[in-house]
Amino acid sequence: MRNRKTKKKRFNIYILGLKLFVLFIVCSSAYSVINQGIVIREYKREIKSLNEQIKKENENIKNVKADIENYKTDEYIEKIARERLKMVKPGEIIYIDINKSEGY
Fold first, then answer.
1. What is the pLDDT of residues 33-84, one digit of tens each?
2. Dihedral, CA atoms, 56, 57, 59, 62, nearest 10 degrees?
3. Whole-Å CA distances, 56 to 26, 43, 61, 68
């Protein structure tokens, strides 16, 4: 009789051990899947942020190219020559406001 109880206890211990092992495997797998989901979500957020930055930089590039083309025009060159270098065209008469402190 004792021998049967001992075998039954051993059998129950093996089944309990097997159940714990399976539970451990299931929990480990669930943790890995959840963790990978979190990592994927973070990568997607980062990709979205980088794509927005790329859009902004492409807009900046377009603006800079437009400015470069504008800087090459005669009108812009004339404007800069008049404003910064205080140049005038031949035959132009310059009037200076003596009440104004800055100017020509």
1. 999 999 999 999 999 999 999 999 999 999 999 999 988 898 998 888 888 8
2. 180
3. 45, 20, 9, 18
Written as six digits, the tokens of 17 are: 């051990």
User: pTM of the prediction?
Assistant: 0.53
The rounded distance, in Å, linking the Cα atoms of 55 and 58 is: 5
Q: How far apart are CA 100 and CA 7, in angstroms?
A: 111
Q: Which amino acid is at 35?
A: N
Query: Three-state SS for 21?
Result: helix
Mean pLDDT of 11-36: 94
| Token pair belonging to 101 | 């402190």
Reported residue count of the chain is 104
What is the residue whose two structure tokens read 């997607």? 44
Cβ atoms < 10 Å from Cβ of 90: 4
Q: For residues 12 and 15, give the distance between their C-alpha atoms in angstroms, rounded to a whole number.
A: 5
What is the residue whose two structure tokens read 């035959």? Answer: 91
